[in-house]
Amino acid sequence: MFDFSKTVVNVPPAREDVYLVEIVSAEQYETRNGNDRIRFTCLVETGAATGDSQAGCTIRDGFNLLTYQDANGHPDHNKNARLQALWMKFYVSLGFDQAELRARGAKFKYEHITVEGKFESIIGKKGYVRYVPAADKDSYSDSTWLTPRQAEVYTEARATVEEATSTAAEGVDPLAGLLNG
Questions:
Q1: Cα–Cα distance measured from residue 101 to residue 94, given in angstroms and rounded to the nearest whole number
Q2: Residue 156: CB partners within 8 Å, gap ≥ 6?
Q3: Quick one: what percent of the chain has pLDDT higher than 70?
Q4: For residue 119, what are the contacts with CB-CB under 8 A and spacing of at least 6?
Q5: Do 62 and 22 touch, CB atoms closer than 8 A?
Q6: What span, in angstroms and rounded, lies between the C-alpha atoms of 36 and 83?
Q7: Could you give the CA distance from residue 94 to residue 115 in angstroms, rounded to a whole number?
Q8: 169: confidence class by pLDDT, cuts 50, 70, 90
Q9: Residue 66 gets which letter from DSSP?
């Protein structure tokens, strides 16, 4: 008997939007350049503008781990700090508390990211990502992780732009009342 309950097909969203997603899988691997990286697959639930039309699509994303070294084999603090900021933003997007993440300090275990039930695990967590599809077969998609408040502001701003665009398209000048008193 087949059990497709945890099976996803990698079909990315066709439209740019801010999506509510659930992390359904994660894996650690080594890149061609020798960097340790976590790759995760997100299942789209809804989009700010697209609603549920992209539901079931997947977004694959990932980040390198904090393992950059300089030419002498010492930790490259600049590169690692930039990565750590990306990871913090990602975790906050998934609902983790910044203060709690900071308090864990060195107790935070990156090797637990893919292990269900551990504090660091991302499996089953939901978050917001602004996703821009690849422009063509020779380019990459772009993902930016947002906090719930950032996603809300983006959605509100998009609605305001759409309303103004719709009003202008109908021949109504939204500034006429202000200018003509």
A1: 12
A2: none
A3: 88
A4: 104, 112
A5: no
A6: 12
A7: 16
A8: low
A9: S
More confident residue, 107 or 47: 47
Tell me how far apart the alpha carbons of residues 49 and 15 are, in angstroms, rounded to a whole number.
9
Give me the count of residues in the chain: 181
In sequence order, what DSSP letters do the residues of 92-124 get, joined into one string? Answer: HHTT--HHHHHHHGGG--GGGTTSTTSTT--TT
Read off the pLDDT of residues 84-129 as tens digits, 9 standing for 90 and up: 888 899 999 999 888 988 888 778 777 778 777 777 889 999 999 9
The phi, psi pair for 14, rounded to 5°, reads -85, -15
Sequence-distant (6+) residues with CB within 8 A of 48 are 17, 18, 19, 151, 154, 155, 158
Alpha-carbon span 48 to 13, nearest angstrom: 13
- What is the four-CA torsion angle of 40, 46, 47, 49, rounded to 10 degrees? 170
Kindly give the pairing relationship between strand 126-132 and strand 142-146. Answer: antiparallel
